[in-house]
Amino acid sequence: MALLKLQTDQFRNLAGDPVSFSSSFNLLYGENGSGKSSVLEAIGYLGLGRSFRISRHQAVCRHGQVRFTVFGAVDPGRNAAEQQAGGVAEVHRLGFARDIQGKETLLRVDGENVRNLSALARLLPVSVIDPGVFEIVSGGPSQRRQFLDWSVFHVEPSFASLWQQCQRVTSQRNQTLRNGRLDEHLLRAWDAQFSALADQITEARQSVVALFQEAFHSLLREIETPWVEGFKMDFYPGWDRKQPLLEVLARHREQELRMGHTLYGPNRADLRLRFQGRPVAETFSRGQQKTLVILMKIAQGKVLADLGKQVTFLLDDINAELDAEHRAMLAQKLYELRCQVFVTSIERPQPELLWRETIPDFRMFHVEHGRLTEE
Ligand SMILES: Nc1ncnc2c1ncn2[C@@H]1O[C@H](COP(=O)(O)OP(=O)(O)OP(=O)(O)O)[C@@H](O)[C@H]1O
Prior knowledge:
InterPro entries: DNA-binding_RecF, DNA-binding_RecF_CS, P-loop_NTPase, RecF/RecN/SMC_N, RecF_2. This protein is an alpha/beta fold. The protein contains 12 helices and 15 strands. It folds into 2 domains: 1-125 and 312-375, 3-Layer(aba) Sandwich (Rossmann fold), CATH 3.40.50.300; 134-308, RecF/RecN/SMC, N-terminal domain (Glutathione S-transferase Yfyf (Class Pi), Chain A, domain 2), CATH 1.20.1050.90.
């Protein structure tokens, strides 16, 4: 899985000419406002179905236009090719189009309309490392849940549908809690559905956390980090699992009715990161938090790589956030994992800092006024 070709139409300032990329490293350089982040943002649309920079689709549609499109050709990867009895697996064609006025999204895979974004996301696992990524450590539990669930989605095929069902049941349960008068009969029916889904979701998350912990700790052993002793990463499922969720919900009925929403369950899960018993957000320096996030992202890439899935990493504006040593470590590890990487830089990097010597399929593009020129 790697993006081999990209073509856009009416996407920010991008000219829209088709561009071919390397399945390993791609470096995009150009001055401020040239369109580097927009290229990464367009790639992100194919794997995430949204912008990683802004929540409104409208912002990425070229000013004055009402519809934008992103097309991509994706290499199905080593595994798929190997499975096809010695044959070469076919390239997948992904398409995302959004009509801003009608607020309609059209998704296509290999020439067919598809209803769910997961059909695209599965074919192009995209992971973003940009200045906002450090919120995984400094932000609240929802940031870490999102981080964790990205892996669970790519590892456990049933997860997307389980999570969707759980969201639906949670929202109906919350409505009943907010109803004003206690409808115990109806609440018990929601509780039963909710806790059955909660157990399945938690099991899927736990099995992926086990893989993730293993990859993360083997990285920690490789890279000498002074905080290894005293660091702890624990998965909190959203309630004390020594007790069935049904019991926990029954015991906290009064509290939930007062608050008007669900307080226990997988929607409250967290990946707790502690140093000497205290949250790392309170104890780690900014630099240590950055190292931790980078290692977590690499470990996530390794979990998928071990399953034969190549991750496409979008490294946007990282020069401002990471020093040269961290950047080199990140590049080296992602290369070892055979990930596909897109990295932006304002200045043309010094030849000795490029990886041309060690990475055979390295490509560099100069971005000017939304147009990419390969060098
Ligand atoms: N909806 C839009 N329609 C047309 N142009 C847009 C739209 N949104 C942004 N732009 C322009 O597109 C250009 C590309 O912005 P982008 O953020 O991709 O640049 P960049 O090369 O990453 O810059 P920087 O180095 O400052 O991060 C900017 O000049 C911006 O003004």
